[in-house]
Amino acid sequence: MNWLKKIYIVLGMAICVPFQFCMDALDIAPDGFITLDEIFADNDKTSAYLNSCYGDLPDMGVKFRYWCRGLVVWSDEAWDTDAETEPGLMSGLLYRGNASASYHPILNVSAENGNGDYWTRYWAAIRKCAVFITRIDQAAVNSESDRRRWKAEAHVLRAFYYSELLRWFGTGLPIVRKAYTMDVDFSTITKESYYDVVKFILEDCDIALATSELPWRITTDAERVRVTKALAEAIKSRMILYAASPLYNEGENHWEEAYQVNKTSLQNLRDNGYALYNKVNFPTTYKDPNAFLPSDPSALYNEYFTQNMEYSASPADKETIYQGKNDQGDIQNVDGIGAMYNLKTGTCPSQELVDAYETTDGQPILDLADPYRDERHLEPNYNPENTLYDPENPYENRDPRFYASIYYNGSKRKCYWPITESKEQSPENYPGTPGNRIRIIATYPEEPYTGLAAIRRTGTRTGYYERKFLHPFSGNDLGVKGARFKMFRLGEVILNFAEAAAEAGHLPEAIAAVNEIRARAGMPALPSNITREKLILRIRNERRVELALEGFRYYDVRRWSTPDGDLSKTDKWLTAMRVKREVDENGNFLRYTYSRQVVNQRLCYENKFLWIPIPMGDANTMEALTGVRWQNPGW
Known about the structure:
Blueprint: H1 2-8, H2 36-39, H3 43-53, E1 78-80, H4 82-85, H5 90-95, H6 118-135, H7 144-169, H8 194-209, H9 229-244, H10 255-271, H11 283-286, H12 296-306, E2 320-323, E3 347-349, H13 351-356, H14 400-405, E4 406-407, E5 411-417, E6 435-441, E7 465-466, E8 486-489, H15 490-503, H16 507-520, H17 532-546, H18 552-559, E9 573-583, E10 589-601, H19 616-626
Antiparallel strand pairs: 1-3, 2-8, 4-7, 5-6, 9-10
Helix pairs in contact: 1-6, 3-6, 6-7, 7-8, 7-9, 8-9, 9-10, 9-15, 10-15, 15-16, 15-17, 16-17
């Protein structure tokens, strides 16, 4: 019943987070307590209470426990090298299916950087927002403009926390308009439908959008955490799409509504200055030949994800809607190429993800309706219309986003390499000594530093390394921090609109939207005569590529399922590319040959893994109080 306590207890104090109006405002009385009446009788304490509503925002990205990319390595996008070397951590437990309602690896960890313990923390945050919304109209506030803006912010924050509860737990929830009091009869609490909770989220966002004092964009670093109207539109776009999706729609058709909401949100964002990132702003870095980004679209894409959005009235990055509070840290030593620091690789993109990148003529590699002929994904079902893809040269002629996002066998990287090359084991790089130099990323198993490895933490499990968030030259001698994680961006909203439009039958608009994303990436437009069924498949694949490694795939494969489905086609098996270096009788290099192999079987694919469980004690308590089952299916 811990979450119930969180949403009705009187808070002893509020928490400050760092932005402009945060100060040591909540001076505590000698007995250690301060009442809500005292808080809202003072301007500074009121603003500090609002700050506490920001305290549970997650940083996401690589900020899951022990520098894990979380959602990415828990989907079919990637494998986590810690699963073998640290099997007691989140990924290792999930891959082995060690999860229950009483202990689930995603939930039962202390929150680091806002990740973990979601059920308890987000309900506490929702309660704080509800208290603030209820009391702000009568609070002692110096400025009426501040009062209105602060109230709008609390509505957006409550919408965000609810949206995250829905995404994680995938179930209907109580709607908390006002904070519960000590004498509430919890047997009367209603578990609303997923759709009704989404409508409540949209209501909160619309209240914020109607508030003139809430800005569309944050323009000073001092206010960098604060929410905006743009975030409200992005939350609406995302959550109405989820409500219409098969896992959550309870057999009702909400696609037309999702289309209309997304169309309005997208237009409002455009009208208020949001646009796709469309220019390489640092050409001396990203167009440097030694950055090994082979085209302008590749350079642009990698630049976007390795640079922060600046807080300005007219930023170079007009695409990012909301980014995390802090940078992602020294990701080159925990989430890149392990040999660069001799620490860990972390995220290893899967062969399944690599297969999603089209060839430059705009043709998918595989048949998107049935991509593999076998359960274990070892027999690709190639698209017969694709004439560019060559299995013997699998990395040629690919979507520019592939080269900006993934290191593969034969890739090159210039940075400080702390290793000495062996002629026998790494002939491509011999002679090579520690220093800043260009190195070929060879992934054949015999390569001791960057080769395919079953156990080694610095190696790759899949034959690939993540590049998308890694600055082109970061290393031991250039410690460029990972950029703040882009939690919401216009690219997602455009794809949300494209999907909703296609599902609702507005094909020309759907095609135009997805083609806008493809044009920025340097990819050919989809044909105007494409059928609705094929268009939906192409849009889903476009999401997989454009939003790769950002955490969306985890949720997408679930919401596209049905309540009686599972994840066996996507998440049960993950495959790697095994490279063989062939030489002649004199040891001279001839060619690389490529074959697929299974990384391992994951046991977190059954029906119940479409959701994560509500903590067992809370679910049992609510069932006992209300007579209604609260727990998610299978748990």
